[in-house]
Write a structure and sequence with these properties.
about 50 residues; mainly alpha; single chain
Length: about 50
């Protein structure tokens, strides 16, 4: 039973590290290619008629 427990813990650890690695990869791709915070497609504040 002890060997089975050790294998299970090692497998769970690898699974967690794999999920973390995938999440970091996706976050890196998002930051590089999507450029969060960029204001494309939004109208200029001067284009809005505020005279009432």
């Amino acid at each position: 039973m002890r060997d089975t427990e050790q294998k299970a813990k090692a497998g769970m650890g690898r699974f967690v590290i794999l999920i973390l690695g995938i999440a970091l990869l996706l976050a890196g791709i998002y930051v590089v290619f999507e450029t969060p915070g960029e204001t494309q497609g939004q109208p200029s504040p001067h284009a809005i008629d505020q005279s009432g």
